[in-house]
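Dear H.,

Thanks for agreeing to be a second pair of eyes. The structure we're designing against is below in token form, covering all 167 positions.
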């Protein structure tokens, strides 16, 4: 009798603990968004062109360099920044000049922003300039989307695919 109690009591305690953990793992419900909201995510990595063109070194310049560094072209590493605008329903929600990453300013520019909007139809326009000019845009995409409640809508950028991608 005592041996059976020694087995039943710990088993009963474990069952109660596991039941409590199982109950609390799904209750209370937590949602980061309101039930009638959706999220628009602007997320991409893009490197603009180099700020300066490569130039050919003269024979005198090459002679002054150590033999292992005699490359005929001198290409500066720095890249320009990227300017991005996002409008939702005609209202600007994001405007930024994104600097290049890296110690030498030669890496891609990165953006990851989230915008909570009401579920339903929205007009979205996204524009980007990755050249040194100060007006106009190199890539533009706009469209109307209908967002479901708690939906994640992603705006990505792939130059090989023609620019911005709505997913």
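And this is the sequence the design step returned. I haven't edited it by hand at all.
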């Amino acid at each position: 009798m005592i041996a059976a109690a020694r087995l039943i009591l710990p088993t009963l305690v474990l069952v109660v603990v596991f039941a409590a953990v199982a109950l609390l793992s799904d209750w209370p419900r937590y949602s980061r968004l309101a039930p009638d909201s959706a999220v628009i995510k602007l997320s991409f990595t893009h490197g603009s062109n180099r700020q300066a063109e490569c130039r050919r070194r003269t024979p005198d310049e090459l002679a002054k360099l150590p033999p292992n560094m005699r490359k005929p072209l001198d290409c500066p590493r720095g890249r320009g920044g990227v300017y991005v605008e996002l409008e939702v329903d005609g209202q600007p929600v994001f405007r930024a000049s994104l600097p290049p990453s890296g110690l030498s300013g030669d890496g891609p520019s990165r953006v990851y922003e989230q915008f909570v909007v009401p579920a339903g139809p929205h007009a979205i326009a996204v524009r980007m300039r990755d050249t040194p000019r100060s007006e106009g845009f190199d890539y533009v995409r706009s469209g109307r989307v209908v967002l479901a409640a708690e939906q994640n809508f992603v705006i990505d950028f792939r130059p090989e695919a023609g620019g911005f991608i709505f997913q």
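Two observations from my side: The chain has a mean pLDDT of 88. DSSP finds two helices and ten strands in the chain.

Warmly,
E.
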